[in-house]
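User: Can you write out an input/output pair for a complex, sequences first and structure second?

Assistant: Here is one pair. Inputs:
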Amino acid sequence: MSTTPRIDVNAVRDSLYGKWKTERLEARRVASDPRFQTIPGQSMEDHRARVLEQLGGLVEAGAIQRAYPSDLGGSDNHGGNIAAFQELVFADPSLQIKSGVQWGLFGAAILHLGTRTHHEKWLPDVISLKLPGAFAMTEIGHGSDVASVATTATYDPGAEEFEIHTPFRGAWKEFLGNAALHGQAAVVFAQLITGGVNHGVHAFFVPIRTPEGELLPGVGAEDDGVKGGLNGIDNGRLHFTNVRIPRENLLNRYGDVAPDGTYSSHIESPGRRFFTMIGTLVQGRVSLDGSAANAMKGALAIALRYGAERRQFPGPDGRDTVLLDYGLHQRRLLPRLAETYAVAFAGHRLLETFDEVFSGANDTDENREDLETLAAALKPLSTWAALDVLQEAREATGGAGFIAKNRLTGWRADLDIYVTFEGDNNVLLQLVGKRLLTDYAAQFKDGDVAAIAKAVAGQIGEGAVRFGLRQIGQSIADLGQVARSVEGVRDESAQRELLADRVQTMVAAIAMALRESTKDLPKERRAAASAAAFNAQQAKLIDAARAHGELLQWEAFTEALADFSGDTLTVMTWLRDLFGLSLIEKHAAWYLVNGRLSGSRVEAVTAYIDRLLGRIREQALDLVDAFDLTPELLRAEIATGIEAERQAEAHAHVEARIADGTWPIHEKELRKRAQAVS
Amino acid sequence: MSTTPRIDVNAVRDSLYGKWKTERLEARRVASDPRFQTIPGQSMEDHRARVLEQLGGLVEAGAIQRAYPSDLGGSDNHGGNIAAFQELVFADPSLQIKSGVQWGLFGAAILHLGTRTHHEKWLPDVISLKLPGAFAMTEIGHGSDVASVATTATYDPGAEEFEIHTPFRGAWKEFLGNAALHGQAAVVFAQLITGGVNHGVHAFFVPIRTPEGELLPGVGAEDDGVKGGLNGIDNGRLHFTNVRIPRENLLNRYGDVAPDGTYSSHIESPGRRFFTMIGTLVQGRVSLDGSAANAMKGALAIALRYGAERRQFPGPDGRDTVLLDYGLHQRRLLPRLAETYAVAFAGHRLLETFDEVFSGANDTDENREDLETLAAALKPLSTWAALDVLQEAREATGGAGFIAKNRLTGWRADLDIYVTFEGDNNVLLQLVGKRLLTDYAAQFKDGDVAAIAKAVAGQIGEGAVRFGLRQIGQSIADLGQVARSVEGVRDESAQRELLADRVQTMVAAIAMALRESTKDLPKERRAAASAAAFNAQQAKLIDAARAHGELLQWEAFTEALADFSGDTLTVMTWLRDLFGLSLIEKHAAWYLVNGRLSGSRVEAVTAYIDRLLGRIREQALDLVDAFDLTPELLRAEIATGIEAERQAEAHAHVEARIADGTWPIHEKELRKRAQAVS
């Protein structure tokens, strides 16, 4: 007799908490306190005031100091800091992001771009919230293109001051949390000009308001007003008219100006210097990635618990069918459950890499670069996935999901901006794509078009290719030729090869197209032709970067299987297979066009996914329990069992009326009986 | 020399206005009046009060009477009424939907389900808003399954009254606009019970509040509170405890109860009677379909105008590139522009069919059934497309798109619920799928499995199959065998055949799977096996229904081409091709698996789409101008040219500083020069 396996919920729970379980539990305790929780429908003004007060509460609770140096009251705990931050999405994303502005951007910029004097001078007040600040990087005219900001910081050796200046409206700093109301200072990114030379973007500490909230001379601010979400944050614009700051307010870890105006930096290349400075800000992406994973957990906990109780339309037994027993409902929610696990496990790996770099345990240039690529690949996938899952959960719970107190619409509105801030998702994926191309090109002799052509055909053989963070092996072009069955695709190595081969082949094809575009051109026409060719390949490059991110997620899920054994391993392997095969099904057209899978094999994949859905359906509530989301964290009425109670009441009512003979007969039944008699 | 064609914007504009241009323009004048417009960030209380006041304004403006009988102050103009309603999405979706509750649901139920006495008694006050009302159909326990509502209306011949009663919490009426605050009466859907027999769901007029807002005895109400959007509407719950209403309050057009309790109806079958009553409510779906089209126009007008000005990242000429010149940006927005036109044209056809039925010009059972299928197929596609387009427009405009005053997030939040109300989209598509199966089965002799098998293989030949509203012809299984080129797929007939064949083959495959599931079973096991098989096919059936809707959209677009000539026809044909080929590309996996297209043909489709994108990019602003969205309707700062002004200012600033020699040289340039010298 075959019995349904049961997972060890505690084992899965611990695996999902990951390395910083203690910090996550501490943050969840904070998020469980009503003082820190969203009140749906609050006015923007009230919400902003409340969130500011909540930030004070976080300080009191000791919830935000972890990443700061021990001698300033912190604990040098970089991974734990971000892990805790990620859990605040259960309290209120406005609270989360405003705390991110204060301690993860404003404070972290002073910490990572400034030096000891700056730390001692400002960080205690930043940590205590005595000094709320803004992170003034983005400008109206230059969203994700930080290198092009137009604000200037011109050094005046006579006064030993920088003059911070906004030359035109497009250079206004924009979308800055704390800018509209609460910020008293800002870390301003500006072109550093000294002696008539522009040394590129640097960060400056600029006071902007008195503690009483009066703007300082030369500083202008404008309120961004109501937004699509995150209305607990006072986003706004800042501009500067010849605002003077002391020379020492340059955050000078990577570049400094002597009193006489001489510029110096231990990083010679201005490009590398810029990317090093910007690289210290990767923690924003890491933070959002795990926050997205948490919102996905919340959404699915709500939709699956409700779907396992809710009944609609009579089945063959006369009783309404439970939503989660519908084939479509399983298709809508269960692959997303698998994806949520994949996003969570990939997020752990990202956070661990982040901690290695920032703790200094493994702070090599290579690991730093890998961290940035990993973050740029995973943050887009997870933040988009969060919006997708929140929306599907909203629709799967119908009108009930649209009521604010059931949480889904609030998270959806707040997390909307996660896909374009801390780096627009498409811009980040393009960075990943460029890295893939660079790594790919690095292995070929310059101009070796034949080698690339061979790679495009998927015939690389032993010459393994390094893709960003991955080693990818042999060709699997023969996979499609095996007889009709899912056997050849469902095992782990086949999934890995299919996913990895797709990245490899896409990148090779783009590389060849780019090379072909200029190869017979005279030198003076190459730049334009190359730009045009790159533009023509842009959408494909981003697809390739996405495929790379999906591979990373799949591998993280697969590595996580090592945490489990027995029934738990069986179920988690099904879930990993559901994730992997869903990716292959999603990209079936690519596999077919490129001869990797036959049509019948694609159909077999779909059929096997359907079988997996039937199995995972039985595990869905346990897999949701492993998220460990208490009622205080979830706070969604429809996930409390209220629906099952109502149904029990309805059922009992009908049964009682049938028993006492007062249940009216339906006209349909009467007509049937009449027909039977006649 | 080839010149770029230019469209006749006025011709396209008129085509997009369609048959009820006058009414649409009247409604746009209303929507252009600030009194009727959204104020972002209003509190729920203020927003509700404002929208109620706006409803009064609509009455004064003569904006809502059109569908009512002439002798009651209306103009029997059903199509024009809905056309005007659809334009109100530019004012405020809350205003739109609350007016829909009052006049399109509450009032329309009295009009269509009631008889002359009811019309004379209540409609004048409904029209004048003296009598605000709720439409009490949905129950907590039964969202889209109206036949299962549990509220009872039990006739008492002694008192000649119905007793309206809510037997348990799951039977509370839920999500009703006007229920929380403003409704003084409700049309309540309840099981009509007389003489111990349940005659199924009927509608009853039930007073619920005094004009002063006091709930009447036995009536309970609860506020749904803050929602994900549409917060200008006072949604709530209603329940009834033995509430007595006169016998005459039964809306008795399709079923009546005599004083002695005898039930009568001119529709004998209870099932058909129910669907006839419910069928009168199709106008909600028609209304939402066109509203979705309008929101798509608004979103793309904003994103494309901004994208045509906004610059990011330096191109090879040193100037930042216009977003819309990026390959990815074109891929993101232009196929959605084509889809918007398809949705708009399909919406015209739906509205014309609606008008034919409701005006009586062509009110046959068959046309009524076709109308319902058409609405059930198109409303899901258009409302989902609206959310997709609003979100892509939001992301394509970055942080600016997240600011409420730029409109996108507000529409996105409000229209979210459009995908699950007036029929959950998936439930509607399942209805369409069932209709496709029924029509398909009707042409075969009972049990003729061989014939179905033949159909599945796509070999039907001359035996044309009727699919819902479409006649679909011969097999095109040979299309994939032509040499590598797009020639065979890009012309109109090839697009039609590919799209139609897909619907046909999917439906045939499902039909065969369903038949196979029971054919060797004993009778007593068939019901369960059949239900299980249907459930296993559910996701595929919904895919087939969606494919059917896409075919309808494509055909409507193709029919609309008859409105154009010359350059305009050329461009509109490109746009239709972009729509059709994008559908084929989206479903490439299906075409490949089923042998309809070869891999190289699929690649040729993608390459041709890329060429079309380059052409349509040049037409994008004209195609948006044809939406005729004035600044008063659009009200999005980023679509006003402000971005181009800011850039001109920035450009002038830089030029002037270069001219006067004060533009600082960049360190990168200095290093280059130093290298050149050494």
